[in-house]
Amino acid sequence: MTNGGERQSIWSEDIRAARLSDVLYEHLAARIEGGEFGVGTRLPSETDLAEQFSVSRSMVREALSRLRENGTIVSRKGAGSFVQRPSDPAAPTGTIGFGPATSLAQVKKGYEFRIGLEGEAAFWAAQNRTPETLVRIRHSLERLEEAIERRDVGVEPDYNFHLAVAQASANEFFETVLMSMRVPMTFAINLSRSLSLMRPVTRLRIVQAEHVAIYEAIGAGDGRAASAAMRMHIGNTCNRVFEGEVDKYGGPLPL
User: Fold this and answer.
1) How far apart are CA 6 and CA 43, in angstroms?
2) Is residue 195 predicted with pLDDT exceeding 50?
3) Taking residues 72-80, what's their average pLDDT?
4) Which of 91, 110, 211, 249 is geometrically suited to a Cys-Cys bond with 71, CB 3.0 to 4.6 A?
């Protein structure tokens, strides 16, 4: 990352096929999710963003429009664009979101629901994937790999991977439901990945291999394999949390 007026490049050889507005959207979303732009923060102007990332203002407008549509930012006439939570009262009317899980039983129910939902999303992602959506999924995989190398929890890239699969389905209902589940999903992801960090790195490698299997099946256009890989991954994650290793006293690991 750079500060001030210094330009930076977020474009690499493997994403040349993607629309620049999509890549810019993902980059801005990641910076917001990472806390660089906190809630209530005013984003740089369209002109500043266009100059900083060496893209046209129309590309910037497209990226900002997507951020507004999903409730990440709100635009105020004459003042600019500001970061807001999806559940913010200023979000578009009709936005529905689940609150945080209030018990481990709810966390388990969330996994059970996601097995069916995301299994179908992965199936249709394999049928309808495009170069752009595959880039989006791969980008999340790369961020997950970086998190493993740093021994970070990697909550946001994990959630973004699953959201990118839903987006690749070309069915907005899958994407909308996953966005509405962001709070309980990120709680569950944080729980499962934090537990994995208590184990040797091989545990995270197993989880990463499951993500890679989903991506490869989608890339190959194999809907059945993509669905099976997604269902297995979410089921395995649930088992790792609730039926995983035991401590030296024979009891379940502390949650």
Assistant:
1) 16
2) yes
3) 84
4) 91
Q: Where are the alpha helices (DSSP H) in 151-248?
A: 155-168, 172-180, 182-197, 201-219, 223-242
How far, CA to CA in Å, does 174 sit from each of 27, 118, 163?
A: 22, 8, 9
Q: What angle, rounded to 10 degrees, do the helices at 223-242 and 182-197 form? A: 70
Q: Which two tokens stand for residue 98?
A: 């689940």
For 44, 48, 49, the CA distances from 63, given in Å and listed in that order, are 13, 14, 11
Check if the beta carbon of residue 143 is closer than 8 Å to that of residue 152. no
Q: How far apart are CA 80 and CA 85, in angstroms?
A: 17
Q: What is the spatial distance between Cα 201 and Cα 179, in angstroms, rounded to a whole number?
A: 29
Is the pLDDT reported for residue 95 higher than 70? no
Indicate the pLDDT class of residue 18, thresholds 50, 70 and 90.
very low
Could you give the domains of the chain? 13-83 (1.10.10.10), 104-242 (1.20.120.530)
pLDDT tens per residue across span 200-231: 888 889 999 999 999 999 999 999 999 999 99
